[in-house]
């Protein structure tokens, strides 16, 4: 067992950066981290080569993919398959996302 300290907890982006990503656990088959976007911020991520689950722990925004969009708030859980473009927009409250990648983030070459 391993308790993952800080996972899903808001952390202000360092030094005025737009967003903050911290990986808190990494094993070959999955990784867990926290992604934070401040209110009014812009999500500039690129599609990933791994499947991904987002759990919204705080904040409000909209997630947009080429085929759909949805409002998200605390308790929302979103699955994004590997390779699917996606962005959080309309971040109206500081957004904190617990992120689970399978396999571990960046472990597949695309």
Layout of SSEs?
Layout: E1 20-27, E2 30-37, E3 51-64, E4 69-72, E5 77-80, E6 87-102
Describe this structure in words.
Strands 1, 2, 3, 4, 5 and 6 form a six-stranded antiparallel beta sheet that branches. The protein is mostly beta strands and 110 residues long. The chain has a domain at 17-36 and 54-102: Jelly Rolls (Sandwich), CATH 2.60.120.10. The protein has strands at residues 20-27, 30-37, 51-64, 69-72, 77-80, 87-102.
CATH topology value of the domain at 17-36 and 54-102: Jelly Rolls
Assigned CATH superfamily of the domain at 17-36 and 54-102 = Jelly Rolls
Order of helices and strands: EEEEEE
Mean pLDDT: 94
Q: How does CATH name the architecture of the domain at 17-36 and 54-102?
A: Sandwich
**Helix count, DSSP H or I runs of 4 or more residues:** 0
Unreliable stretches, pLDDT < 50, 5 or more residues? none
Supply the helix-strand structural class.
Answer: mainly beta
Calculate the terminal CA-CA distance, rounded to whole Å: 31 Å
InterPro entries: Cupin_2, RmlC-like_jellyroll, RmlC_Cupin_sf
Organism: Dactylosporangium aurantiacum
Domain Cupin type-2: 35-101
Protein name: Cupin domain-containing protein
Name a few traits of the molecule.
Jelly Rolls, RmlC_Cupin_sf, 110 residues, RmlC-like_jellyroll, mainly beta, Cupin domain-containing protein, 49% strand, Cupin_2
Gist of the model:
This protein has strands at 20-27, 30-37, 51-64, 69-72, 77-80, 87-102.
């Amino acid at each position: 067992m391993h308790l993952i300290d800080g996972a899903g907890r808001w952390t202000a982006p360092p030094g005025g950066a737009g967003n903050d990503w911290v990986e808190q656990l990494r094993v070959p088959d999955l990784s867990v981290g926290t992604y934070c976007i401040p209110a009014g911020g812009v999500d500039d991520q690129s599609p990933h080569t791994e499947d991904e689950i987002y759990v919204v722990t705080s904040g409000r925004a909209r997630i947009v993919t080429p085929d759909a969009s949805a409002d998200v708030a605390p308790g929302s859980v979103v699955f994004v398959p590997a390779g699917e473009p996606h962005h959080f927009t309309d971040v109206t409250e500081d957004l904190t996302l617990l992120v689970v990648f399978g396999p571990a983030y960046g472990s597949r070459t695309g």
